[in-house]
Protein backbone atom coordinates (compact mmCIF):
# COMPACT_ATOMS: atom_id res chain seq x y z
CA UNK A 1 0.00 0.00 0.00
CA UNK A 2 1.43 3.34 -1.08
CA UNK A 3 -0.03 6.64 0.03
CA UNK A 4 0.36 9.25 -2.68
CA UNK A 5 0.58 12.86 -1.57
CA UNK A 6 0.45 15.70 -4.05
CA UNK A 7 2.68 18.16 -2.30
CA UNK A 8 4.97 21.17 -2.19
CA UNK A 9 7.67 21.15 0.49
CA UNK A 10 7.49 24.89 1.18
CA UNK A 11 3.76 24.73 1.93
CA UNK A 12 2.93 24.76 5.67
CA UNK A 13 -0.19 22.57 5.28
CA UNK A 14 1.81 20.02 3.31
CA UNK A 15 4.45 19.91 6.03
CA UNK A 16 1.74 19.36 8.63
CA UNK A 17 0.86 16.15 6.80
CA UNK A 18 4.55 15.24 6.54
CA UNK A 19 4.87 15.58 10.32
CA UNK A 20 1.83 13.39 10.93
CA UNK A 21 3.04 10.69 8.55
CA UNK A 22 6.52 10.79 10.08
CA UNK A 23 5.20 10.24 13.60
CA UNK A 24 2.91 7.44 12.41
CA UNK A 25 5.71 5.77 10.47
CA UNK A 26 3.84 6.02 7.18
CA UNK A 27 5.64 6.18 3.85
CA UNK A 28 4.42 8.76 1.38
CA UNK A 29 4.97 8.81 -2.34
CA UNK A 30 5.40 12.55 -2.75
CA UNK A 31 4.26 13.95 -6.07
CA UNK A 32 5.78 17.41 -6.34
CA UNK A 33 3.48 20.15 -7.57
CA UNK A 34 4.92 23.41 -8.89
CA UNK A 35 2.36 26.14 -8.31
CA UNK A 36 4.51 28.55 -10.30
CA UNK A 37 4.17 26.20 -13.28
CA UNK A 38 0.44 25.81 -12.52
CA UNK A 39 0.67 22.05 -12.07
CA UNK A 40 -2.39 22.32 -9.84
CA UNK A 41 -4.48 23.44 -12.83
CA UNK A 42 -3.73 20.42 -14.98
CA UNK A 43 -6.99 18.65 -15.92
CA UNK A 44 -5.94 15.34 -14.38
CA UNK A 45 -5.29 17.01 -11.02
CA UNK A 46 -8.43 19.15 -11.08
CA UNK A 47 -10.36 15.93 -11.71
CA UNK A 48 -8.92 14.56 -8.45
CA UNK A 49 -9.37 17.78 -6.49
CA UNK A 50 -11.71 20.40 -7.98
CA UNK A 51 -10.31 22.96 -5.52
CA UNK A 52 -6.84 22.18 -6.97
CA UNK A 53 -5.02 22.60 -3.65
CA UNK A 54 -2.13 20.88 -1.92
CA UNK A 55 -1.85 18.72 0.02
CA UNK A 56 -4.06 16.16 -1.69
CA UNK A 57 -3.94 12.54 -0.57
CA UNK A 58 -4.64 9.51 -2.75
CA UNK A 59 -5.10 6.42 -0.58
CA UNK A 60 -5.80 3.62 -3.05
CA UNK A 61 -8.23 5.78 -5.00
CA UNK A 62 -9.73 7.52 -1.98
CA UNK A 63 -9.01 11.21 -2.52
CA UNK A 64 -8.84 13.65 0.40
CA UNK A 65 -7.69 17.25 0.43
CA UNK A 66 -7.25 19.84 3.20
CA UNK A 67 -4.36 19.14 5.54
CA UNK A 68 -6.49 18.89 8.68
CA UNK A 69 -8.85 16.38 7.08
CA UNK A 70 -5.89 14.34 5.85
CA UNK A 71 -4.19 14.36 9.26
CA UNK A 72 -7.33 13.19 11.04
CA UNK A 73 -7.87 10.50 8.40
CA UNK A 74 -4.33 9.16 8.71
CA UNK A 75 -4.44 8.97 12.50
CA UNK A 76 -7.91 7.44 12.56
CA UNK A 77 -7.13 4.81 9.93
CA UNK A 78 -3.50 3.95 10.53
CA UNK A 79 -2.63 4.64 14.17
CA UNK A 80 -3.40 2.29 17.05
CA UNK A 81 -2.15 4.96 19.43
CA UNK A 82 -4.80 7.68 19.66
CA UNK A 83 -2.65 10.17 21.59
CA UNK A 84 -2.37 12.56 18.63
CA UNK A 85 -6.16 12.59 18.30
CA UNK A 86 -7.72 11.23 21.51
CA UNK A 87 -11.25 9.87 21.47
CA UNK A 88 -12.31 12.12 24.35
CA UNK A 89 -14.92 14.53 22.86
CA UNK A 90 -13.65 17.59 24.71
CA UNK A 91 -10.02 17.04 23.70
CA UNK A 92 -11.08 16.54 20.09
CA UNK A 93 -13.13 19.73 20.22
CA UNK A 94 -10.09 21.68 21.45
CA UNK A 95 -7.95 20.16 18.69
CA UNK A 96 -10.55 21.13 16.08
CA UNK A 97 -10.75 24.60 17.57
CA UNK A 98 -7.01 25.11 17.17
CA UNK A 99 -7.06 23.67 13.66
CA UNK A 100 -9.78 26.17 12.75
CA UNK A 101 -7.56 28.89 14.25
CA UNK A 102 -4.84 27.69 11.89
CA UNK A 103 -7.03 27.64 8.78
CA UNK A 104 -9.12 30.67 9.69
CA UNK A 105 -6.54 33.13 11.01
CA UNK A 106 -2.92 31.95 10.96
CA UNK A 107 -2.71 30.50 7.44
CA UNK A 108 -4.69 33.33 5.80
CA UNK A 109 -2.25 35.79 7.40
CA UNK A 110 0.55 33.86 5.72
CA UNK A 111 -1.21 33.83 2.34
CA UNK A 112 -1.88 37.57 2.39
CA UNK A 113 1.83 38.23 2.78
CA UNK A 114 3.38 35.57 0.59
CA UNK A 115 1.19 35.79 -2.51
CA UNK A 116 2.19 39.39 -3.41
CA UNK A 117 5.84 38.46 -2.87
CA UNK A 118 5.63 35.40 -5.12
CA UNK A 119 3.34 36.68 -7.85
CA UNK A 120 3.51 40.48 -7.75
CA UNK A 121 7.21 40.88 -6.89
CA UNK A 122 6.40 42.82 -3.73
CA UNK A 123 9.52 43.81 -1.79
CA UNK A 124 7.90 44.99 1.42
CA UNK A 125 5.27 43.68 3.81
CA UNK A 126 2.43 46.11 4.58
CA UNK A 127 2.04 47.14 8.21
CA UNK A 128 -1.55 45.87 8.18
CA UNK A 129 -0.28 42.39 7.30
CA UNK A 130 2.38 42.57 10.00
CA UNK A 131 -0.30 43.56 12.51
CA UNK A 132 -2.39 40.58 11.44
CA UNK A 133 0.50 38.20 12.14
CA UNK A 134 1.15 39.84 15.51
CA UNK A 135 -2.49 39.16 16.39
CA UNK A 136 -1.91 35.49 15.57
CA UNK A 137 1.14 35.46 17.84
CA UNK A 138 -0.79 37.18 20.63
CA UNK A 139 -3.52 34.55 20.54
CA UNK A 140 -1.10 31.63 20.37
CA UNK A 141 0.94 33.01 23.26
CA UNK A 142 -2.26 33.03 25.32
CA UNK A 143 -3.22 29.51 24.21
CA UNK A 144 0.15 28.25 25.46
CA UNK A 145 0.01 29.99 28.83
CA UNK A 146 0.84 27.38 31.47
CA UNK A 147 0.97 24.62 28.85
CA UNK A 148 3.66 22.80 26.91
CA UNK A 149 1.34 21.97 24.02
CA UNK A 150 -1.36 23.82 22.13
CA UNK A 151 -4.32 21.62 23.06
CA UNK A 152 -3.29 20.56 26.55
CA UNK A 153 -0.76 18.39 28.32
CA UNK A 154 0.59 16.37 25.39
CA UNK A 155 1.38 16.60 21.69
CA UNK A 156 -1.66 16.42 19.41
CA UNK A 157 -2.68 17.20 15.86
CA UNK A 158 -3.25 20.77 17.03
CA UNK A 159 0.52 21.21 17.43
CA UNK A 160 1.30 19.49 14.14
CA UNK A 161 -1.22 21.70 12.35
CA UNK A 162 0.07 25.00 13.72
CA UNK A 163 3.81 24.34 13.91
CA UNK A 164 4.55 24.62 10.16
CA UNK A 165 2.37 27.72 9.81
CA UNK A 166 3.88 29.55 12.78
CA UNK A 167 7.49 28.69 11.94
CA UNK A 168 6.88 29.86 8.37
CA UNK A 169 5.26 33.10 9.54
CA UNK A 170 8.40 33.64 11.61
CA UNK A 171 10.35 33.87 8.33
CA UNK A 172 8.14 36.80 7.33
CA UNK A 173 7.42 38.52 10.65
CA UNK A 174 9.96 37.51 13.27
CA UNK A 175 8.54 36.21 16.53
CA UNK A 176 9.46 38.78 19.17
CA UNK A 177 11.46 37.60 22.17
CA UNK A 178 8.55 38.61 24.41
CA UNK A 179 6.61 35.58 23.16
CA UNK A 180 8.25 33.21 25.61
CA UNK A 181 5.54 30.56 25.36
CA UNK A 182 5.73 30.39 21.56
CA UNK A 183 9.52 30.33 21.59
CA UNK A 184 9.51 27.52 24.15
CA UNK A 185 6.93 25.53 22.20
CA UNK A 186 8.90 25.77 18.94
CA UNK A 187 12.12 24.87 20.75
CA UNK A 188 10.39 21.89 22.38
CA UNK A 189 9.15 20.63 19.03
CA UNK A 190 12.48 21.19 17.29
CA UNK A 191 14.26 18.76 19.62
CA UNK A 192 11.98 15.85 18.72
CA UNK A 193 12.94 13.19 16.18
CA UNK A 194 10.19 14.01 13.69
CA UNK A 195 10.90 17.75 13.39
CA UNK A 196 13.07 17.26 10.30
CA UNK A 197 9.84 16.70 8.35
CA UNK A 198 9.16 20.41 8.88
CA UNK A 199 12.71 21.76 8.78
CA UNK A 200 13.68 20.91 5.21
CA UNK A 201 10.76 22.72 3.58
CA UNK A 202 10.96 25.54 6.12
CA UNK A 203 14.63 26.16 5.29
CA UNK A 204 13.82 26.09 1.59
CA UNK A 205 11.03 28.63 2.09
CA UNK A 206 13.25 30.91 4.20
CA UNK A 207 16.02 30.92 1.61
CA UNK A 208 13.63 31.60 -1.23
CA UNK A 209 11.74 34.39 0.51
CA UNK A 210 14.98 36.07 1.61
CA UNK A 211 16.17 36.06 -2.00
CA UNK A 212 12.88 37.48 -3.26
CA UNK A 213 12.85 40.26 -0.67
CA UNK A 214 16.51 41.17 -1.16
Automatic annotation (TrEMBL):
PROSITE patterns according to UniProt: GST_CTER, GST_NTER
Domain called GST C-terminal: residue spans: 88-213
Molecular function per GO: glutathione transferase activity
Lineage top rank: taxon: Eukaryota
Pfam families reported in the protein's UniProt record: GST_C, GST_N_3
InterPro entries per record: Glutathione-S-Trfase_C-like (IPR010987), Glutathione-S-Trfase_C_sf (IPR036282), Glutathione_S-Trfase (IPR040079), Glutathione_S-Trfase_N (IPR004045), GST_C (IPR004046), Thioredoxin-like_sf (IPR036249)
Matching CDD domains: GST_C_Delta_Epsilon, GST_N_Delta_Epsilon
GO biological process, any: glutathione metabolic process
Matches recorded under PANTHER family: GLUTATHIONE S TRANSFERASE D10, ISOFORM A-RELATED, GLUTATHIONE S TRANSFERASE E13, ISOFORM A-RELATED
Subunit structure: Homodimer.
Protein name: Uncharacterized protein
Naturally occurring in which organism (per UniProt): Photinus pyralis (Common eastern firefly)
